């Protein structure tokens, strides 16, 4: 399924794989597939829940809108990460 989703780029397949990996406690893979599915809010939520500070800024830029503001607030609350806000 992973190979097919990767090669086809099918958003629905990628979204379902994101859900699968989230349910099976693999947040890195879940974030990757949610991102490929353009489900940026889901990917961003998981990244925040799992302290993936290196991915949050890029995901927020992809999502836009309120997600940018929330990402800035997230970084402001982490010591040493204020410059990313």
Quick recap:
By secondary structure, the protein is mostly helical. The chain is built from six helices and no strands.
Structure description:
The structure is a single chain. With 85 residues, the protein is an all-alpha fold. It has one domain (2-84). It has 6 helices and no strands.
> Please, what is the average pLDDT?
89
- What portion of the residues fall into strands of 2 or more residues? under 5%
Roughly how much helix do the residues carry, as a percent range?
A: over 70%
- In the predicted model, the low-confidence regions spanning at least 5 consecutive residues are none
Total number of domains: 1
What would you report as the Rg, rounded to the nearest angstrom?
13 Å
Largest sheet properties:
none
The ordered H/E elements are: HHHHHH
Total strands: 0
Which oligomeric state applies?
single chain
The number of distinct helices, counting runs of at least 4 residues, comes to 6
**N-end to C-end Cα span:** 37 Å
Shape, principal axes of CA atoms: elongated
Task: Kindly name the structural category.
Answer: mainly alpha
Pfam family, one: TPR_IF140-IFT172
Protein name: IF140/IFT172/WDR19 TPR domain-containing protein
Keywords: Cell projection, Cilium, Repeat, WD repeat
GO cellular component, one term: ciliary basal body
């Amino acid at each position: 399924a992973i190979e097919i989703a990767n090669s086809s780029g099918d958003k629905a397949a990628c979204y379902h794989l994101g859900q699968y990996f989230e349910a099976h406690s693999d947040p890195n893979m879940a974030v990757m597939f949610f991102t490929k599915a353009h489900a940026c809010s889901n990917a961003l939520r998981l990244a925040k829940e799992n302290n993936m500070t290196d991915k949050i800024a890029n995901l927020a830029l992809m999502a836009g809108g309120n997600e940018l503001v929330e990402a800035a607030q997230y970084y402001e609350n982490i010591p040493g990460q204020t410059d990313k806000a």
